[in-house]
Fold this protein.
Amino acid sequence: MDQKILVILPHPDDEAFGISGILAKSIAEGAHVTYACLTLGEMGRNMGVPPFANRITLPEIRKKELEESCRIIGIQDLRLLGFHDKTIEFEDQELLDEKINSLIEEIEPSLIITFYPGYSVHPDHDATGEAVVRTVGRLPRSKRPPVHCIAFAKDHEAAIGKPTILYDVADYLEQKIGSIRAHRSQFQVPGLSEAGISKELKERFGVERFWVYPFS
C-alpha cells in the first residue's frame, strides 16, 4: 500500500525549509501527500524585496506562492483551513481539533508531520503541534499514526534529545530550493540563485531532521 502522508502546518512556507525534501522524495516513491495549511500567513511582516505586496494583497500572493511550492514539490492535495494568522493559540480548541480529526478520518494517513509543540519558536507552530498531538493522542493506539515533528527552538535538543530520524534529501535539493524560492515575498536566501546551489546551501539543506512524538 502506498504511503499516505498528512502534513499539518500553520503558514505558507512552513513546508519549505524543513520537510520539502522528504516530501518530494516520498512522492517520487509513490506516496500521496495532503498538506493542510491552517492560515494564509496574512500577518507576515515581509512584503518582498523590493516590496511588491501590501497588507491587502499579501494573503492572495502567499496563497499563490504556496500553490507554486506544492506544485514544485509534487504535493497532490492542498487544503486551506481558513484560520487567521497569529491566532492559532487563541482558536477554539474543539473546533481546531474537530478539523484535524476530520482530516485524519478522511485520509487515514500512515504518517502525520507537524511541529513539535513547545520547541518550534512561533506560537502558531506550537499551537498547531499541540492540536495535532492532542487529537492523535485521543485515538485508540491501534488507529494512531506516527507523528513526526519538526523542532528548531534554541536548546531544543537539551529538552527532547537528538532527532529520531535523519533523511538525506541531497537528491531532491532542486525541489527543495524551488519550494523555498516560490515563497519570494518572504525569503531572499544568500547563495540561492538561478545559477545553482552553493556548497553551503547543500550542506545546510541536504539533511532533514524529525522527532517521533513520544505518546505516553
